[in-house]
Design goal:
The chain has 283 residues and is α/β, with parallel strands linked by helices. The chain contains 10 helices and 8 strands. β5, α3 and β6 (130-136) form a beta-alpha-beta unit.
């Protein structure tokens, strides 16, 4: 049976997280721990308990995880004297230090949705102990292909069926449902150019980082999985997996979309960080 416990770490033990560990008989030896970062201002359970579901499904697959509250969020105290971006990276570093000391874990996989994905990107760049990353609706840029696919949707019968359903029944579309759930503070602005982000992701690839990029139809700036290569000039591969969830909201409001997202992450984790994969590419 999996175990969940409250952890405190960082300056004056002011940061809080929930450590989820698998049954010892199910544990995957030498696997990195998943470090799950806040989505916007939602505390460590995640939107619609997404982070709880991720942590528990990873535990069922044999992996430990730590879902934390960044400083100033949830149950964590505010770290003073630093910018918001600096605080997120420092908080992640403190969490990795805690895992190294208490679980003898030398490596982690950072996981984040929206602003959490941006902070995961920053943490991966800053700390060599990050060996993998899963970005849900993270940094994106609109491309020519995006505009072609985005406006072609108006020619599809499904678009008009959804529009009629919304008008007659009052049911929101996926992108609108996400907007109703999230406030402005949930989203983030990237003060980096497309070329800078492309170079950074390329550097992570060269470093050997295993990465999973997941995008949803509810995330208005993405229209297909193919947009990833258009944005960053990197082809999906065994090291870089890209998924696009049609009809899924940005926050995975519906249970079947949440289940699909959790399964996608757990399957990717198992493929990248067990057995032969660890032997080929040790942490």
């Amino acid at each position: 049976m999996m175990q969940e416990s409250v952890c405190q770490f960082g300056p004056d033990n002011g940061l809080t997280g929930i450590l989820t560990q698998p049954n010892e008989s199910d544990r995957v030896a030498d696997a990195p721990v998943a470090l799950i970062l806040n989505a916007g201002i939602v505390h460590n359970i995640g939107p619609f308990r997404l982070h709880v579901d991720i942590a528990r499904q990873l535990a069922e697959a044999g992996f430990s995880s730590l879902r934390i509250d960044l400083s100033g969020l949830g149950d964590s105290e505010t770290r003073t004297g630093k910018s918001v971006d600096d605080r997120a990276v420092l908080d992640a570093t403190d969490a990795i230090d805690f895992l190294a000391e208490h679980l003898s874990c030398g490596s982690v996989v950072v996981v984040g949705l929206c602003s959490g994905a941006f902070n995961a990107h920053q943490a991966a760049l800053a700390d060599p102990r990050v060996v993998g990353a899963s970005f849900f609706d993270g940094i994106v840029f609109r491309t020519t292909g995006f505009y072609l696919r985005h406006y072609l949707r108006y020619a599809k019968p499904r678009f008009w069926r959804n529009a009629i359903k919304r008008r007659v029944i009052g049911e929101p579309l996926a992108s609108e449902a996400a907007g109703e759930t999230l406030g402005e503070s949930e989203f983030f602005e990237v003060e980096k150019t497309q070329a800078e982000v492309s170079q950074e992701i390329g550097g992570l690839v060269d470093r050997g980082l295993k990465m999973l990029f997941v995008y949803t139809e509810g995330y208005d700036d993405v229209a297909s999985a193919g947009q990833f290569e258009e944005m960053f000039g990197i082809k999906p591969s065994d090291q870089v997996q890209v998924e696009y969830f049609k009809e899924a909201e940005h926050t995975f409001r519906l249970s079947h979309n949440r289940a699909a997202a959790c399964s996608c992450l757990a399957d990717w984790y198992s493929e990248q960080f067990t057995g032969a994969a660890l032997a080929r590419d040790p942490a």
